[in-house]
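Wed. Picked up where I left off yesterday with DUF2075 domain-containing protein. The coffee machine is broken again, so keeping this brief.
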Amino acid sequence: MTTTSPLRSEDRGNASVTRLSPFQPLTDEQQRLVDSIVRFCERHSHDGHAALVMEGDAGTGKSLVLNTAFQRIQSEARDRDSTRSLHGMRNILLVNHPEMIKLYRNIAATIPTLRKKDYERPTSFINAMHKSEQRVDIVFIDEAHLLLTRTDPYNHFRQSNQLEEILKLARIVVLVFDPRQTLKFKGYWDDAHLRTLLAGIPTETISLTEQFRVEANPDVMTWIRALCDGHLLPLPAKQHFDFRIYDDAARMYDDICQRNDACGQSRILATYDFPYTLNGEDHFVQTGSFHLRWDRNQPTHPLPWAERPESIDEVGSVYTVQGFDLNYAGVILGPSMSYDKVTDRVVFHPDRYEDRAAFSGGGRITDTPRAQCQVMANALFVILTRARQGLYIKAVDPALNERLMLLWKERG
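Structure written out below (tokens, as returned):
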């Protein structure tokens, strides 16, 4: 059985760009929310402050709705013949995720009413606005749960909270917020924290509920949520969504390679439980006979990691797949997750979690162990909800592996 492979065939098309294009067909629910966002911005176009919060589970199409509304507003702002309230406004979309910035800018290059400069990282925007002493009209924020909540000199952010600064620098803020995708203490959010910052600002909240990514019966998402909360339910029933448990990571990788050859956009992912240092060298995920390098950090590469054909020969982390779709995902649950036979629960072990930077800067967090486990569970939820057509899972911990294989046999 192989544990590495030569470069596979080219992925079929650019799935993520198509998915986030403002001209992608929308569901009725998504179209209603796009219209709501545009009307909100029109209604508050002459106000000093207003905020709109869009909530929704992973895979409900929040980024598509946001970018579609942004394109409509930019089209109106740049229409020289328009007499509507949004004409001439200066607007920008922010996202604190380097892979997502590449995706948004690649989309903008194909649409006349958008510019690559319309999309920026929060810190770059904040610093530029403070330097120029300027203010914009509307700021859209994708993945607002990734905004920093403390000073971070390493990333050139010297204020105390990125959202607080953005609220000072824009009249209208439209943000996507999902606290279940918070991955670091320096950006540790909950709903109460958000509401405190928005207190005194006219605020509306809209929600997406229809699952847009995971093409499965509801029992699949129910099982995933339970696992992230430490519970093991009976496995989802057999259905068109291809859900599998593996005893061998190398065999799982071979099957993912076959799915990639057949339909593209299929990758191996892992929890952040294997050593990984940004020092320019390759680092590897190894369990049993499986041995494959972690995703390579290539900030200047024009394509996001999930879009690169060669990434079939790498293991993706939560930081390279958050916000992206795959067709099939093979997920390795590393040593930081174990199984307690007495309580029949999955246990998270922060001391085994290799992403130590995720736990730095938690001075204001009162219950550190609980927050550490929550960050780990959030990261797990992100990587388990990337796949549209199939999810394969392999656990490294012997007890957890045994329990999952028993559930697999019981499903038959």
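Quick read: The CA atoms of residues 282 and 293 lie 6 Å apart.
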